[in-house]
Amino acid sequence: MTLDDLARLTGEWLRGVGPMSDVVISSRVRLARNLADYPFLATASDSERADIYRTLAERIAATPVGSDALLVDVETTEPIDRQLLVERHLISRQHAAGEGHRGVSISPSETRALMINEEDHLRIQALRSGLQLEALWNEVNEVDDALGASLSFAFDRQFGYLTACPTNVGTGIRVSVMVHLPALRLTKEIERVDRAARDLRLAVRGMYGEGTEAVGDFYQISNQTTLGITEDEILRNFGEKIIPKIVEYEWAARESLTQHRAAQLDDKVWRAYGILCNARCMSSEETLARLSPIRMAIHLGRFDEFDIATLNEIFLHIQPAHLQKIHGTPLDGEERSIARAEYIRKRLKG
Amino acid sequence: MIFRCQRCHQAKATVHITDMMPEQNEQHLCEECAEKEGIIVKHQHQTTSAILQEFIKHKTGIAGADDRACPKCGLTFREFRLKGQLGCPHDYEAFRSLLAPLIERAHEGGTHHVGKVPSTADSTIHRETGLVRLRRELQEAIEQENYEEAARVRDQIQALETSESS
Q1: A278 to each of A309, A335, A340, B76, B132, how far by Cα in Å?
Q2: How far B44 CA sits from the closest chain A CA (Å)?
Q3: DSSP 3-state assignment of B23?
Q4: What is the pTM of this model?
């Protein structure tokens, strides 16, 4: 498997299946770990970084975890390929833009990505479509056990697993769930989510302050507290309280729209479809904005000109790196805008 | 540990005010009580990192804290405050008393690890983590007036405490 092969696949997190997938797009669990005998990356020398990289890469390859995985040396990878990995949610923007020896180990199904030398020495990540927190925990836990058996992770009896930044100390676990909330925005109730998240000390990305909308109505909700609470409690809070509550709010808003504003909703959807089928220039932001009400309408059974699988494919392929890979040549901003519109038209109308 | 509002003692405290003059004094209030006290609460979402950044930008008030350095990597506490990142795992030991209040604040009052422990960790760590977790469960059970659960947890604590001497 090469990176070029990846570009044509839709990838795990956009498979569109899994529990509550009409609102919960994907869920991810990551663990942060550092080797006990090395400094954190902010002060590590180049040769120490290289040692850390080599040690982790060897261990990963030696365990069942990494046997069929693709190890990507991010430092020597072309920027466009790094961007591809970011678009597929396999590495963070920070990792792509970072400096020094660093990499990522990716499982063939793209459900697992182990980042080496990002903010911490090792970040074990598992990613799935819909809400599958238990499966995700089992996966990262297994990897953690397999690697932890032969490596000494930095750990303190009071502070737990030690991380470069104290905000991740303790369990080192971050649970992130990406939700699609177009109805809550349309009914102007998105503030409820913001307030609920604030009370529960959750981070919500995609909300850039009052009145500003998230691109494509996607919001990423994550825990912030990682110490003084067990991994199980964090996962159960998310899976049993937080996310179901948010999904409930969104469902109620969708219900309200279909009951009281059906014509306006359908109008928004069909206008979006009209633009997608006919425009000659499209930015990524606008494409995602147009796809948003259509995604909701498909799930509500109000629109069947194309299906979710197609929508997800478009969603991924219009992003800058994917678009250029599929096109076959590099494209500047304006060229991308034109190529994007052309790709969308072809995909929707054949 | 749950910060309860110091005014109504009911709701969870989400507004934290630190007075620096005439002397350092911390207040913890819920939004409603804060508004009643005339404190305007801006509905701004503050991430843990943001809280931490604000906290560490200000001096700890402890003489000589900034000059304390980690014997292994040489990072000073001042450097940590400026960067927001630590230099090596040993920093947690070198700056333990300075980091503890920061960490407690950043993690909603969490002070001690109660989650997963490395398989390679010795049995005393497993025991200690287990005891901290159980004591917390006991506290919560008592707060919720679930005395049956509290008794059950107390038994588990006793069993774990005596297991060391065996």
Answers
A1: 21, 17, 12, 60, 62
A2: 8
A3: coil
A4: 0.83
Closest CA of chain A from B22, distance in Å: 30
Residue A146: closest C-alpha in chain B: B119
A128-132, B37-41, B120-124 — most confident range: A128-132
Strand order in the sheet with A218-223: A70-73, A103-106, A112-116, A122-129, A24-33, A173-180, A218-223, A202-205
For residues A74 and A53, the answer to whether their CB atoms sit within 8 Å is no
Contact B113 A156 (CB under 8 A): yes
Residue B15 and residue A324: Cα distance in Å, rounded?
48
**Cβ–Cβ < 8 Å for B111, B1:** yes
Say what the pLDDT of residue B131 is. Answer: 87
Question: What is the predicted ipTM?
Answer: 0.87
Closest CA to A177 of A95, A232, A235, A229: A235
3 state SS of B159: helix
Flag if A228 and B86 touch (Cβ within 8 Å).
no
The whole-angstrom separation of Cα A272 and Cα A279 is 10
Verify whether the Cβ–Cβ distance A154 to B85 is below 8 Å.
no
In terms of CA atoms, which chain B residue is nearest residue A39? B88
Give, as one character, the DSSP assignment of residue B154.
H
Closest in A34, A226, A228 to B89, CB measured = A34
Instruction: Yes or no: say if A290 and A277 are a contact pair by the CB < 8 Å rule.
Output: no
